[in-house]
Design a protein that fits this description.
Blueprint: H1 2-6, E1 12-16, H2 25-39, E2 44-46, E3 52-54, E4 61-65, E5 72-78, E6 81-84, H3 85-104, E7 109-112, H4 118-134, E8 143-148, H5 151-154, H6 157-163, E9 168-173, H7 175-185, H8 205-220, E10 224-230, H9 239-259, E11 263-266, H10 272-283, H11 302-305, H12 317-335, E12 341-343, E13 346-348, H13 350-365, H14 378-394, H15 401-413, H16 422-442
Parallel strand pairs: 1-4, 7-8, 8-9, 9-10, 10-11
Antiparallel strand pairs: 2-3, 5-6, 12-13
Helix pairs in contact: 2-3, 4-6, 7-13, 9-10, 12-13, 12-14, 12-15, 13-15, 14-15
Length: 455
């Protein structure tokens, strides 16, 4: 996957240790090993059929996203306490590759997730400064792009850029986590119920305000503004699905380019040429459009960033059931060690699953009115949860659906909205893989992994 991404023709490739990764110890260490090989241009792979994969002479620029500050790495203890996962991911990668990057004059580059405050940006800047001094690398060699993917961070864009001014490359409109954060930040306010997830788009008023403000802030400060991730993915066995996906991607990226963004993200390498065409149509031969500064500051205020009204938006049974099904399906992948999953021709990761989970919690605890039905309550949630769980099992999706069902049930019924699903899921993940490792070490049959487990 990494070889295909680096060879895709995209300008850059983000190796994601965060929302698109299930943080098993094997995944973390194998990911770091693959990055070490990729930085040196020698990453290669031969599959079971004998097909060889090698890096091209010219590849995408490598960018690494460490895990967020809320995560810990329980396999590494300092004074008996688990180390910050952010510091672990950054530290291992930097220690192994910083001097190689320096020799090749191509990095290191990072993407910083989940930030809510300029104080977190200041902490990252301190980490960068220390690391560069420790390895005698020039100050400012590290370049980092910050994901503005939380509602609090949308109010501190300039402060975040200021704190990272010696290391900042720009800001990214992390749309999916931003919707998750919007719901979470306003979860206890019944006036902030959003419609079905599919109805919340970048043309929704509060999302459009956030995106335009990000472009204006970045360009006024000489920083790059990166657009959001397009989650549509092609389906090679269904040409009509691929054609529909490409049309939606073109529309989305054309809107971003015209809004002033300098680049954007995709979830699948087959979309690279499509996105490039849309940006070239606007940028021409330019690498960016930082000279274009939209004059939106006079038109966007705090109320615009927090206005939940979406004209014509509704909460439906179909939407709520889809939230349940997608979350269960994704968690099954995550607990199986795969942090990104193609579901209904969309690339789902932890951010999109979190949107579904928090929408369910908010709708349940505020007894949201369902279009054409009664209000959403615990009885209805449990009925649909059971039905969607059984449907996935009947479809052959396993082995962790029972576990995922128990986790989602616990999180949605809890009167306190959990900040992140990963804090409930990681202990289960560690237990699953600890059992598997013990089974391998003793040559024993692995214990069954399809039994419900309390988070």
């Amino acid at each position: 996957m990494m070889i295909n991404a680096l060879n895709s023709g995209a300008k850059s490739f983000m190796a994601d240790f965060e929302d698109a990764l299930s943080p098993t110890w094997d995944n973390i260490l194998n990911g770091q090993w693959a990055l070490l090989e990729a930085v040196r241009g020698r990453l290669e792979y031969v599959n079971e059929a004998g097909k060889e994969y090698k890096l091209n002479a010219n590849t995408a620029t490598l960018v690494v996203r460490p895990r967020g500050w809320h995560m810990t790495e329980s396999h590494v203890l300092i004074n008996g306490e688990a180390i910050s996962a952010s510091l672990f991911d950054f530290g291992v990668y930097f220690a192994l590759n910083a001097r190689e990057h320096k020799a090749r004059q191509n990095g290191p580059y990072f993407y910083l997730p989940k930030m809510e405050s300029h104080l977190e940006a200041r902490l990252w800047n301190d980490v960068f400064t220390f690391a560069q001094e420790y390895f005698t690398i020039s100050h400012g060699t590290i370049r980092a792009t910050v994901l503005i993917e939380t509602l609090p961070a949308a109010f501190e864009m300039e402060e975040i850029l200021f704190e990272l001014r010696d290391h900042a490359a720009g800001l990214n409109a992390g749309r999916w986590d931003y919707i998750f954060s919007f719901i979470k930040s306003q979860a206890h306010n019944p006036d902030y119920l959003l419609p079905d997830r599919d109805q919340v788009t970048m043309t929704s008023p509060f999302m459009k305000a956030y995106a335009n403000l990000l472009v204006e802030t970045c360009h006024r400060r000489g920083a790059h503004a990166m657009g959001g991730m397009s989650a549509f993915i092609p389906n090679r066995s269904q040409p009509e699905v691929t054609a529909s996906a490409l049309a939606k991607v073109r529309e989305d990226k054309r809107r971003e380019a015209l809004a002033g963004f300098d680049g954007s993200w995709i979830a699948h390498p087959d979309l690279a040429s499509t996105v490039r065409e849309e940006f070239v149509a606007v940028l021409g031969e330019r690498d960016h459009q930082k000279d274009q500064t939209p004059t939106v500051r006079a038109r966007y205020f705090a109320g615009d960033l927090t206005d939940p009204k979406i004209p014509g938006g509704t909460i439906t049974e179909t939407g709520l059931r889809k939230n349940i099904s997608v979350t269960l399906n994704y968690l099954n992948h995550w607990l199986s060690g795969r942090g990104a999953a193609a579901i209904h021709n969309l690339m789902e990761d932890m951010a999109t699953a979190e949107i579904s989970r928090t929408q369910l919690w908010q709708c349940l605890h505020h007894h949201a009115e369902i279009a054409g039905r009664r209000h959403f309550d615990q009885e209805l949630f449990l009925q649909w949860l059971g039905e969607e769980s059984q449907a996935l099992i009947a479809a052959g999706i396993s082995p962790h659906i029972p576990r995922a069902t128990e986790v989602l049930k616990t999180l949605v019924l809890d009167p306190h909205l959990a900040n992140f699903m990963t804090t409930s899921l990681t202990p289960i993940l560690n237990t699953i893989y600890k059992h598997e490792e013990q089974g391998r070490s003793h040559g024993e049959k692995q214990p069954p992994t399809n039994q419900p487990s309390s988070p």
